[in-house]
Amino acid sequence: MDAAVVRLGACPQIEVVACSAWHETSPIGGPPGQARFLNGAALLETSLTPHELLARLLQIEDRLGRCRAERWGPRTIDLDLLLYDELVLKSSSLEVPHPRLAYRRFVLEPAAEVAGAMLHPTIHWSISRLLEHLGATMPYVAITGPIAAGKSHLAERLVAELAGRLIAERPNWARLDAFYTNPSGHGWKTELEFLDQRGRLLAADAAVWSEQQWAISDFWFDQSAAFAKAWLPDEQYQAFLEPYERLRQTVARPRLVVQLDVPVEELLIRIRQRGRDCERHLTTEPLERIRQAVVDRVGRPDSGPVLHVGSGDHETVLAEALAAVRGME
């Protein structure tokens, strides 16, 4: 790592402005039995473009003996580009900001030493605020996504892996059947019932919270606003926001939101496979409205750190979520 910093500084287009201490941390994800890792962060000034800088980082890795054997496995050196001013970039070879920056304690701690005031350009929080968030919130993860995205399945798997506590919705299936059959006639009451239940389950003074045990909910309180936006006419939606905002001030905020974003075609297949009678009326159009409303709500700055997980098999999704949780510890 020292050699990597020296090589960065030797590049005429790069100035190493500051370098953090090296932090020894436990391995996150990957194969079992790995030794502990060292992590650090450097603040650079450069005239290189992001892709040129990435090429230089990869070149330094190669010269220092980097060997890519398996994901999250042991490696001699691993140089990531975390932020580049406030640029948002996503290409086949590079994503900036780094997609896991916002919730990895082993990244945020050294990064805060050298660039605490730098802003995460999509969350709009500083590095220091992201780090403070990990200490200011209860160990709680909320899972969100459209209907049939796999929220309950993932929540149950995480609880089993973490020996955690499950916070699960208990839908009124008869109410949902009437709602899906006639959304305009039953939407207002149904959305208020869900809002009330979520507020009670996530009340900040509830007995479910513990500093020593992870809590996992198969819903996110803020998805109430997303689903209401998708189902209710605008006048009702505006009225809905009043009790929603009031309750929002009384519930525990998650340390991390896990967003399951599954294509509508896959959602319809899953809905047919699970065979719930109340969901027989669901079609592509309302499912896409819900999916987009959740995406929009998750993208708001007040959502905090979010792990975005696309369509994938259950084991891959679980591995991503579990690594994110472990990275916050």
What topology emerges from the helices and strands here?
Elements: H1 2-9, E1 14-19, E2 23-25, E3 37-39, E4 42-46, H2 50-63, E5 89-90, E6 95-96, H3 105-115, H4 127-136, E7 140-144, H5 151-162, E8 165-167, H6 173-181, H7 183-201, E9 215-217, H8 223-231, H9 234-248, E10 256-260, H10 264-274, H11 284-298, E11 306-309, H12 314-328
Parallel strand pairs: 7-9, 7-10, 8-9, 10-11
Antiparallel strand pairs: 1-4, 2-3, 5-6
Low-confidence stretches: none
Number of domains: 2
CATH topology of the largest domain: Rossmann fold
Strand ordering within the main sheet? 8-9-7-10-11
Average pLDDT level: 95
* Helix-strand makeup class: alpha/beta
Largest sheet: 5 strands, parallel
Helix-strand string: HEEEEHEEHHEHEHHEHHEHHEH
**Portion of residues in helices?**
40-55%
What does the overall shape look like? elongated
CATH superfamily of the largest domain: P-loop containing nucleotide triphosphate hydrolases
Count up the helices: 12
Walk me through what this model shows.
The protein has 329 residues and is α/β, with parallel strands linked by helices. It has 2 domains: 2-135, 2-Layer Sandwich (Alpha-Beta Plaits), CATH 3.30.70.560; 138-328, P-loop containing nucleotide triphosphate hydrolases (Rossmann fold). The protein is built from 12 helices and 11 strands. It has helices spanning 2-9, 50-63, 105-115, 127-136, 151-162, 173-181, 183-201, 223-231, 234-248, 264-274, 284-298, 314-328, and strands at residues 14-19, 23-25, 37-39, 42-46, 89-90, 95-96, 140-144, 165-167, 215-217, 256-260, 306-309. The chain has a 5-stranded parallel sheet, sandwiched between helices. A two-stranded antiparallel ribbon has the order 1-4. A two-stranded antiparallel ribbon has the order 2-3. Helix 6 (173-181) runs antiparallel to helix 7 and helix 10 (264-274) crosses helix 11.
